[in-house]
Amino acid sequence: MAAAPPLSVQGSGHSICLNTVAGLALGSLPLKTCQPAIRDMRNLQQKLCIKRRAEKKPYTDNRLHLVMSAISSSDIRFNPLTPSDTIKQFYTCINEKNLKQLSNFISSNCLFDDCSFPKPFQGKEEVMCFFEQLITSMGQNLEFNIGLICEGDDLTAGVTWHLEWKKKQIPLTRGCSFCECSIEGSRLVIKKAQVIIESPFKAGALVLTLLKFVTSIFDEFPQATEWFLNSPHVILQLFLRIYSIVLWPFISPLLGFYINLWNFMARLFSYTIKILFYISKIFYK
């Protein structure tokens, strides 16, 4: 029987040497008379396989390197699978001033409740309008620094943070956010968020005294307290009406005067700094 030549199958840019098939074909030769020929054929087959692999390896490695380079250089972000990853990428988009990517983390019916504002932002349009103003106000050097992130049940997570200017913490800017996420299609988005910011007023023991005073009034008038707690917006609107009718006509001119005064002082201070800087350049050349 004639000796079978070494076989190789080439597909998709790879060579596969069929050692088993060749071995079976060679093994069918007479053992005593063809032993040197079998050895030579096997050695030749191994050399051919090694040569083909060496020829194909640079191409495969280069192609893999190009693919990995394209992936690393692209601006593709994979949607995170956990609420903690969602929050991390959410604040990363804010720091990078990337509103387009930020909108991918906001649900269409998102409710964003920032305790610094009198009422929450409802809907994606209002929420994105708020973040657009926030990013504009942050400038180029201000960013959020993320602290602890804790996950809860039902796709919820909480995070602590503070603001930094050029990697230096700004006082009175600590805060925490609590987010509830939901799945929209194949994406994990923020459905509800509540933000609590550190108060700039450190009342200390005065808060406890005020709390004791308020609770004593609540206990003294329980029915009025229940009515107030069930409809606090009614009391607020009443106070706003009294303020606009009685106090605003007197406060508005005084407030306008102080605003104009502060603007004048700020401009005067700015001009003074510029003059001193100009004089220093003359004397310290």
Structure description:
- The chain is of the alpha+beta class and 285 residues long.
- The protein has 3 domains: 66 residues; 115 residues, Nuclear Transport Factor 2, Chain: A (Roll), CATH 3.10.450.50; 75 residues, no CATH class.
- Strands 3, 4, 5, 6, 7, 8 and 9 form a 7-stranded mixed beta sheet that branches. Strands 1-2 form a two-stranded antiparallel sheet.
- Strand 5 and strand 6 form a beta hairpin.
- Keywords: Membrane, Transmembrane, Transmembrane helix.
Keywords:
seven-stranded mixed sheet; alpha+beta; 9 strands; Nuclear Transport Factor 2, Chain: A; 285 residues; two-stranded antiparallel ribbon
Form type: extended
Order of helices and strands: EEHHHHEEHEEEEEHHH
CATH class annotation of the largest domain: Alpha Beta
**N-end to C-end Cα span:** 100 Å
Number of strands: 9
Keywords: Membrane, Transmembrane, Transmembrane helix
InterPro entries: NTF2-like_dom_sf (IPR032710)
Organism: Nyssa sinensis
Protein name: SnoaL-like domain-containing protein
